[in-house]
């Protein structure tokens, strides 16, 4: 594989950049693989990469219905954070933060990881107390957390509405200075390129049509490009999890919902980090290009549409303008939607299943992007060793029937009560 | 924007309604021992199909009645609606 560097850039400039190697190949599926990963998104690509790198399993195929990186890894708002209170979530995501910090070097691909901080705004004394508690829990897990008062927030986001008579006056907030953003497409491409160079087959335009299961074991997968034999399958298909689970006669604690985001026209730098305004169902950051990147809550009913409905965008931006009045003068450039695998407690599932050789990675709700490296790393471990790692043992499939829910923030599918 | 026919009030804008989830889920029988598996099934497990979905909606800014809707989860086409004590055709 060609290494990307200033020297290769100069060298290729002499040939008008026409002789770069392809970043990954376009192979036809072989008859048999040791592991087949279904879903060529962030989680699937990262899983294949760590299978090859950490576990030396390189006879791996990634099967993708469309093109790699065309799903939620290309549709998110690129926020990376580990500001969780529960130990299972905090440890898992802080492990991921360390992978993020080194990712550009490790993948030899600039993912533009930019730790510019995140602030969750608080609007009452009670909420400040709750944030103090969460911040203390984060610190106990070695995560940086800073409780900010109103004046400190005002220094960071002076353009917010700090008047006294607003519906949700800003009391303060909880910040994680090491949180940040990254260039989402580069994450998918970086993992794909490295996985491919270690021998992983990335097979695009290949839809799964069925599974070969007998005697409680996986024997293969049927696809639109032929049958493939394998003893291990990893499902990383986010919003399509229920569709494939149905082919396996499984019913999961997952519903598929639509989540929208939007960007404004680009403007000069005004907002440094990420700001979340939970009371207004709104969060915002500014991209390197200057666009204001904004999102909110789910559309609110089961959906596979991959495109949103206007009432939700209107609701999100109404909240946005309440916090940042200057937004009302910006034009919206694009809105888009992705389909989320909403788990019933708002936390993911990375686990084995009752079918031998079938591994499940789903339930990412609003926050799949930040977990791409930690999810790939732990899922690769789970597949390779056939047992969960201590980092993902809390994300079990049976926690719903046993009562060990990870209901971190009262999220989940039921937006009408949360 | 969905345009939903409340069986009591007629067609209204989506903004008048709140969503109530899968409409085919039945609570386990009252006054009987309920196994963990049955309870798990009732509270957490959902088919979430791609295509036709029977679901509950609540006309919260109208007559405040709950009712059933059959809707396509990809196209959002609404095929029919009915009162909760009536069967969808």
Give an account of the 3D structure.
The complex is a heterodimer of chains A (418) and B (89). Helix content of chain A is 28%, strand content 25%. With 418 residues, chain A is α/β, with parallel strands linked by helices. Chain A folds into two domains: 25-82 and 85-108 and 184-254 and 345-402, FAD/NAD(P)-binding domain (3-Layer(bba) Sandwich), CATH 3.50.50.60; 118-179 and 255-343, 2-Layer Sandwich (D-Amino Acid Oxidase, Chain A, domain 2). In chain A, strands 5-6-4-14-15-16-13-17 form an eight-stranded mixed sheet. Chain A has a six-stranded mixed sheet with strand order 8-2-1-12-19-18. In chain A, a hairpin with a 2-residue loop joins strand 9 (208-214) and strand 10. The radius of gyration of chain A is 22 Å and the shape is globular. The mean pLDDT of chain B is 94. Chain B contains one helix and six strands. Chain B has a single domain, classed as Folate-binding superfamily (Folate-binding fold), CATH 3.30.2270. With 89 residues, chain B is mainly beta. Chain B has one helix at 36-43, and strands spanning 3-6, 10-13, 18-22, 52-58, 66-72, 78-83. In chain B, the strands form two sheets. A four-stranded antiparallel sheet of chain B has the order 3-4-5-6, with no helix packed on it. A two-stranded antiparallel sheet of chain B has the order 1-2. Helix content of chain B is 9%, strand content 37%. The longest helix of chain B has 8 residues, at 36-43. The chains are: A alpha/beta (418), B mainly beta (89). Chain A binds chain B through residues 240, 242-243, 246, 251-256, 300-305, 309-311, 344, 400-402, 413-416, and chain B through 1-2, 14-15, 18-22, 36-37, 39-41, 43-50, 53, 55, 71, 73-76.
